[in-house]
């Protein structure tokens, strides 16, 4: 299992040549929600493997249960990476993805989130879904860390399975929080702008 | 493991020793009280020396391990330089598959053919300029996006030509066969001769430009390259090339002329890559992703000089009939 993680993160790093920049933010093992733009299947893996080892150990990424439980290999990989499996189909009361995430992360884990809800082509960052807002509302102590993933859409774009090994850049920005009484739409807009701003620093 | 001759080992040792001395000099200069030396210049010098140290140490290691490892090393450098080139070149999603084959087929295949030996010269000297150049536009056409078609094809072709094709002629020096009864050196020495002279030529041009530079060649392309720097640099390298002639199978005067031609090509490489960078609006190939000079900035002159040096050296091969 260790070896699988080692090989796959190595492969992801080789294919995407990431350079990591921490801007007004330091690596920390405190509980965080890293939220990033989403353009490639490589996103989670590259971002996760770019974190320092001790941060990586407490950071989990989210994966779709219906996809990652289909075959033995996928189940093995999901288990290996300790992925947080979320059911996209059977959403029940008290079983909402946000509740599930909160239960799974407890008071130790951080989580990587893509609030756009799906992969975009990379030209523009889509509107954010509300999950991030509800997470922040239920757990105001979580640090919300914006991340901008640059160029991964050219390395392994949507609908492609052959990679082109260009170089990518991961910019991790200053943590933000939900302000008291901040309306949902305004908060989501602010969060989206926090990610976009990192493109230009 | 290759059987490097004692002589080659000595040369490697002397080169590494020289760089080590330069490193110490740089350290001492940094300790100097303020006002006596220009700290920006010292920092630049130290940075250069560190890179030379790295380059030489890795090259020496690869030579010691054998020709295959040298080829692997140069393949890795080509691969990384091409990444930097394409990363800063805008492409469109329809170019994706063409780029995949460029990276994972043409780049390794070029080095594989070189590794198979000089009988494949006919093939590896046309693989990229002919076959890849035809393949790239065709593959992009099949993807069905006509927007800026010629421009996109040309960008990928140029990247592949400079970073892979031209650069691969440097390790191809190792596959040449010379008459050992006339020349006792090894191909590794010839490769070292080439790399050291082209790198020093960059430094000489920079140094002469700083000392005497008045007439900038093309201010919009590169504000620091002057005619004085270029001429001073090439004269210095040529003199050095003549002094180091014993590392090559050439006569002394031949070594001078060949060095001159090679360094002119190296200069042309620096200018061309500067023009490409200005066009893209970046100062270094690394800036887009790392904030410091990229690998391509280090090897631009080697890329242009390698084919010139290779083809001139090739004239001295023993003919296969002998």
How would you sum up this structure, described in words?
- The complex is a heterodimer of chains A (201) and B (322).
- Chain A has a single domain, classed as Glycerol-3-phosphate (1)-acyltransferase.
- Chain A has a seven-stranded mixed beta sheet with strand order 1-7-6-2-5-3-4, with helices on both faces.
- With 201 residues, chain A is α/β, with parallel strands linked by helices.
- Helices cover 38% and strands 18% of the residues of chain A.
- Chain A contains nine helices and seven strands, in the order αββααβααβαβαβαβα.
- In chain A, helix 1 crosses helix 2 (43-50) and helix 6 packs across helix 7.
- Chain B has 322 residues and is mostly helical.
- In chain B, strands 1-2 form a two-stranded antiparallel sheet.
- The model of chain B has no long low-confidence stretch (mean pLDDT 90).
- The chains are: A alpha/beta (201), B mainly alpha (322).
- Chains A and B meet through loops of A and helix 3 and helix 4 of B.
What keywords describe this structure?
heterodimer, A: alpha/beta, Glycerol-3-phosphate (1)-acyltransferase, 9 helices, B: mainly alpha, 3 domains, two-stranded antiparallel sheet
